[in-house]
């Protein structure tokens, strides 16, 4: 089977004024689409052609000879997850079980915010900041390039893309401002809560 570019879960202008329709046009329509096209070309006719995205990622992670396949598969997965990690009128604080879990594992919501901002700001070059569940506990982590905590035994709940193309048209070199805006106005806590509930 071949993969296709998933639709955005909202209109291209739905995240304005925080993330512009122009940014989403390039990021989703060009970058994400290129990863889908590249992946389909790389797996066509191979034993990976009938595997799921997650299966491809696990099968190729850490294998230098399959780095191209992993990078494109993981970027397809990461980006799809990122779009869902944001919502129009997002931001603020979580509620319910997720809020309780954050307080229990980080000490407070503010402590989580500090950890998440630090992960995003200190990821040198391209990469991602994540809220994950690992061994029953919430953690904030960061990954470089296309890496994904999924291949390290963790369950991603939420991600923020810190590749420059995610924010440069709107924030230029001000990555900390983009990170703050993500948390204050964009983050989709309902998506993170649903992922936590599904992890059981």
Automatic annotation (TrEMBL):
Sites where the protein binds Mn(2+): 27, 79, 161, 165
Domain Manganese/iron superoxide dismutase N-terminal: 2-87
Catalysed reactions, semicolon-separated: 2 superoxide + 2 H(+) = H2O2 + O2
Keyword Disulfide bond belongs to the record: no
Enzyme superclass (EC): oxidoreductase
Organism superkingdom: Bacteria
Swiss-Prot/TrEMBL keywords: Iron, Metal-binding, Oxidoreductase
Enzyme Commission number, as recorded: 1.15.1.1
Family annotation (PROSITE patterns): SOD_MN
Residue ranges occupied by any Manganese/iron superoxide dismutase C-terminal domain in the UniProt entry: 94-194
rRNA-binding listed as a keyword: no
MF terms in GO: superoxide dismutase activity; transition metal ion binding
GO cellular component: a single term: cytoplasm
Cofactor: Fe(3+)
Chain's role: Destroys superoxide anion radicals which are normally produced within the cells and which are toxic to biological systems. Catalyzes the dismutation of superoxide anion radicals into O2 and H2O2 by successive reduction and oxidation of the transition metal ion at the active site.
Family: Belongs to the iron/manganese superoxide dismutase family.
Protein name: Superoxide dismutase
Organism: Kordiimonas sediminis
């Amino acid at each position: 089977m071949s993969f296709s570019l998933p639709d955005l879960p909202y209109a291209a202008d739905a995240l304005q004024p925080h993330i512009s329709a122009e940014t989403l046009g390039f990021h989703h329509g060009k970058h994400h689409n290129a990863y889908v096209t590249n992946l389909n070309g790389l797996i066509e006719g191979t034993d990976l052609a009938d595997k799921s995205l997650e299966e491809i990622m696990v099968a190729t992670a850490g294998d230098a000879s399959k780095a191209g396949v992993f990078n494109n598969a993981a970027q397809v997965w990461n980006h799809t997850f990122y779009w869902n990690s944001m919502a129009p009128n997002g931001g603020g604080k979580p509620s319910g079980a997720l809020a309780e879990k954050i307080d229990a594992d980080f000490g407070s919501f503010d402590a989580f915010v500090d950890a998440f901002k630090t992960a995003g700001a200190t990821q040198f070059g391209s990469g991602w900041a994540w809220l994950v569940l690992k061994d029953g506990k919430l953690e904030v982590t960061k990954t470089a390039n296309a890496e994904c905590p999924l291949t390290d035994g963790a369950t991603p709940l939420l991600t923020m893309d810190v590749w420059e193309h995610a924010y440069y048209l709107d924030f230029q070199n001000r990555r900390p401002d983009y990170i703050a805006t993500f948390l204050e106005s964009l983050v989709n806590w309902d998506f993170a809560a649903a992922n936590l509930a599904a992890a059981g």
